[in-house]
Amino acid sequence: MKSIELLAPGPMMPLVMEKLGEAFTLHKLWEIADKDAFYREKGAAIRGLVVGGHVRIDEAFLKNVPNVEIISNFGVGYDSVDVKVAAAKGIIVTNTPDVLSEEVADTCLGLLLMTVRELPQSERWLRAGKWEGQGPYPLTHTTLRGSTVGIIGLGRIGKAIARRLEAFDVKIEYHNRRPVADCGYAYRASLKELAKSVDILVSVAPGGPETHHMIDAGVFEALGPKGIFINIGRGSAVDEPAMVEALKKGTIRSAGLDVFEFEPKVPAELIAMENVVLLPHVGSGTHHTRNLMGQLLVDNMTGWFSGKGPKTPVGETPWPKA
Ligand code: 8YV
Fold first, then answer.
1. Distance from residue 106's CA to the centre of ligand 1 (Å)
2. What is the residue range of 38's domain?
3. Are 24 and 4 within 8 A, CB to CB?
4. How many CA atoms lie within 13 A of 14 on its CB side?
5. Is the Cβ atom of 76 under 6 angstroms away from ligand 1?
6. Partner residues linked to 27 by β-bridges
7. At 282, phi and psi to the nearest 5?
8. For 83-130, how does the pLDDT look when each residue is reduced to its tens digit (9 = 90+)?
9. pTM
10. For the chain, how many structural domains are there in total?
């Protein structure tokens, strides 16, 4: 397969670079100074893209590489790829589902507990010498006891989160575009209905045009002044300025966020707030899980070019062929 040429627009983890570099001819776009000259000379020879969310893969990008057959995405979320344009061109898009669900769910529960019980704030209290100087950290007003958690997006990761929450003996409700079959949790037909009904709202919503800013001022209003918002999905699903306002004005009580709209940029106003817990998008960030994701990306690429077909094509992709 060495004669097959691939292009990585941005750096990927070593496992991916090494394995794809051994099997294929892999070009590293970020190391190429004259990109126009590269496209002129090599653009038409590129048959696969290896992407990880750094660069938007859209009509304009694909013009440079007109013979691409497959876009292999690192991550379950593939919102940086314009899947509609790819599908119209007959290009396969793959992602890395399942292998990260349990890890992301673990992180979500950690973030939720940190936020509800103010654990980072109480740790800061200790480190600042306040325990000895001023006394115990104040009791928290919020608790999981007797509370209801609403999940936006009861997919693979949402279900893994719900399974963990069951052990915490809380009530679970959810919102999806459609009710999930054979599911015992209460379904709320709209986001506002869900927000109104729960104490803690957890978003696992993916990015992309369909979810853009769907968690807006009205949803925060519905969640209310005792409400807690957790986001482990995509930042773009949230109207970030509206969320900042809601936190500032006490429209909601607090938030725990692993994702942001313009990563790695996090609004300075959020960083200055005491009633938020902020993580730098670490949901799947362990060697164990990232290696599984990397291997799945490699398997998708080699599967396609060896004629076996892609292992995990996304829903919008033209596969299997009709
Ligand atoms: C990764 C993710 O952090 O899978 C996703 O969609 O957001 C995370 O698992 C990300 O893909 C790393 O680039």
1. 14
2. 5-98+288-305
3. yes
4. 1
5. yes
6. 7
7. -110, 15
8. 999 999 999 999 999 999 999 999 999 999 999 999 999 999 999 999
9. 0.96
10. 2
